[in-house]
Amino acid sequence: MKNFYNRVSNRNRQSRGPQKSSIPFRLNFLFIIVALLFAALIGQLAYLQVIHGAQFKAVVNQTDTTIETTNVQRGMIYDSNGKVLVGNQAHQAIAYTKGVNVLSTDMYSIANRLGKYLTVSTGTLTPRQSIDYYLTNTKNLAAVEKKIPNIKQYSATERYNKALSYLENDSGFKLTATQKNAAEIFAKMSGAYALSTTYIKDSNVSSQEIAQIGEHLSEMPGIKVSTSWSRNYPNGESIKSIIGTVSSEKTGLPSDEINQLLAQGYSRNDSVGQSYLEKEYESVLRGTKAEKQVEVAGNNTITKEVKKYGGQKGDNLQLTINSTFQSQLQKLVRSAESNAGGYSTGTYAVVMNPNTGAVIGIAGVDRDPSTGKLTENALGTINSDIVMGSVVKGAMVSGALMSGVITPENNTLTDEVINIGGVKKSSWFNHSGSANISVDAPTALEVSSNSYMMQLAMKEAGFKYSAGAALNMSTKAFSIERGYFNQFGLGVKTGIDLPGESTGLEGSSSRTNIGSALDLSFGNYDAYTTMQVAQYMSTVANGGTRIAPHVVQAIRGTTSDGKLGTVKSTVTPKVLNTIDMTAAQKKLVKEGLYDVVHGTNTYKTGAELASISPGISAKTGTAETYYKGHSTVTLSLASYAPSNDPQVVVALAMPNLSTSDEDNNMKLAKQIYAAYWKTVQSTSTLTNPTKATTAGSAQNTAG
């Protein structure tokens, strides 16, 4: 039996043959795939390392170069004698320079640390800024999210917005005083751009705050102790309305100009001139920012800082205005308006050099007749349109001479009542017609004859006057008169280097208003600015050259010790046009203006001005006006001195006075001239300063 089993076992072993591997084919296939993938990976690594290794190494090591800028001190503004009108007051400040890719959580931590040592105003903190600060703390955000149903189904951004909306509607949400302080700091930091600097607190930083922050600067990346500047007015603020304003760091760039200014290199929180000279000369005053080249590595760390340019303070403006005289002029104007009666709405005065257009003083006061409140407004001289009255008659006579309706040899007319279809208009001294007298052009100016001017207007329009007949005169009369007025600066912009100047105000020129063409001839229709009146009289005084007024005399640099530096450019007189009048025609007009003050006619209108020394030539103006249904008078004056060698022009306007105040313009003029000769220019510099006492002396230089 044993042998049987041995034989069977031997046969089974012989039938199986040699021993074979038992690993399945599929497993072998997987091994092959894995081997191929390893080979591909090794090949790709070799490709990247050998072929492009240098390139990728450069990418890893590359740096991004950015320019960091820092603001500089704004240029100052000086008067004609070098006195500071607008300066810069330095303040210790706390600033923050935002790094590259700084996280909001980082700024949150810095704001909380800084808040321990610095107290800021939270008056402008908005509810949204408070919530953003609160939710930047991840624990606070998580706590709020728990109160919102199904919050996990939203994305991170949606969850934040849900939390934001939740707190906006939560009446119980409120920050503590400490949190508000930190939230304001956080809001200012968040508003900064990468590598830009913003002020956290730009004034009233205490010594204790400076000391404590200085000790902990290393704990607050980007925080630095800095300096800020604000405008100050060491010689008073009467000139401020002309100078204009500068935006603060808080208000930043004006919203209507932000894109334009950003393109010019400004940052959103930069200060910029907002109005008048500060805006007009922004490119001069702003200076050039300091520049630092910052290299940022691929991991957003700053690897190198190089100072490229230290910055340059803005250049300075030197004005034509004499600050001492300006202060006196403003006081005189304010005093005159304070003493005005009736429904007076303001007083305005301009003092300028007729030969250069340099404005020496410019003052104005507005008045609210209902309350009597006075408001300084020097800009009223360029943007308040006023019906000036007879002050324009010098231009009317000049136009008539240029048109040829009168000549230096033939210019006598009869002052009579002008009767147009039963409507009568007359001169102030001849209302009834009983004083009909023959007047020539100089006398017409001396006595301020309305009748003479109306007759000139009709002659210019080619209309033959007949007493009592209708005024069938062409409406061209308006354009003819205005054309001559415009040549002297009345009814057009003067070209002064201040924005916002008015062109004046024209009345209707329609056929139904044809009678107003006669009113226009003696100044009782169109409205002009005080600056236009000053330019008109300057054109007469200098012999017929209309020059643009200017308040900027020069642009100057700064010395090493911070004082007014060398002249970089000067403002030269800008001639706008010349008057096409002969020497004889100019002489005739100047004779009349001289006689207004120094003539012998009983009806001369400027007798009160005769006491002014050196002697002046002038034209007074009185317009019949109305204020809210009440009868008033508007007084004006255009004058120059000395009559024989004009050095200064004084023009003023006083709208809507009581009829009992009809000499206020001359009282104010006397005070202004006295202040001018005492403060601005000594009469000792004049040739024969008191000699201008005869019409002949004016005539000798009229050409």
From TrEMBL:
<feature type="region of interest" description="Disordered">
    <location>
        <begin position="1"/>
        <end position="20"/>
    </location>
</feature>
<dbReference type="InterPro" id="IPR012338">
    <property type="entry name" value="Beta-lactam/transpept-like"/>
</dbReference>
<keyword id="KW-0812">Transmembrane</keyword>
<dbReference type="GO" id="GO:0008658">
    <property type="term" value="F:penicillin binding"/>
</dbReference>
<dbReference type="GO" id="GO:0071972">
    <property type="term" value="F:peptidoglycan L,D-transpeptidase activity"/>
</dbReference>
<dbReference type="GO" id="GO:0009252">
    <property type="term" value="P:peptidoglycan biosynthetic process"/>
</dbReference>
<dbReference type="InterPro" id="IPR036138">
    <property type="entry name" value="PBP_dimer_sf"/>
</dbReference>
<dbReference type="InterPro" id="IPR001460">
    <property type="entry name" value="PCN-bd_Tpept"/>
</dbReference>
<dbReference type="GO" id="GO:0071555">
    <property type="term" value="P:cell wall organization"/>
</dbReference>
<keyword id="KW-0133">Cell shape</keyword>
<dbReference type="GO" id="GO:0008360">
    <property type="term" value="P:regulation of cell shape"/>
</dbReference>
<comment type="similarity">
    <text>Belongs to the transpeptidase family.</text>
</comment>
<dbReference type="GO" id="GO:0051301">
    <property type="term" value="P:cell division"/>
</dbReference>
<dbReference type="Pfam" id="PF00905">
    <property type="entry name" value="Transpeptidase"/>
</dbReference>
<keyword id="KW-0472">Membrane</keyword>
<keyword id="KW-0131">Cell cycle</keyword>
<dbReference type="InterPro" id="IPR005311">
    <property type="entry name" value="PBP_dimer"/>
</dbReference>
<keyword id="KW-0573">Peptidoglycan synthesis</keyword>
<feature type="domain" description="Penicillin-binding protein dimerisation">
    <location>
        <begin position="70"/>
        <end position="306"/>
    </location>
</feature>
<keyword id="KW-1133">Transmembrane helix</keyword>
<feature type="domain" description="Penicillin-binding protein transpeptidase">
    <location>
        <begin position="348"/>
        <end position="672"/>
    </location>
</feature>
<dbReference type="InterPro" id="IPR050515">
    <property type="entry name" value="Beta-lactam/transpept"/>
</dbReference>
<keyword id="KW-0132">Cell division</keyword>
<keyword id="KW-1003">Cell membrane</keyword>
<dbReference type="GO" id="GO:0005886">
    <property type="term" value="C:plasma membrane"/>
</dbReference>
<keyword id="KW-0961">Cell wall biogenesis/degradation</keyword>
<protein>
    <submittedName>
        <fullName>Cell division protein FtsI</fullName>
    </submittedName>
</protein>
<dbReference type="Pfam" id="PF03717">
    <property type="entry name" value="PBP_dimer"/>
</dbReference>
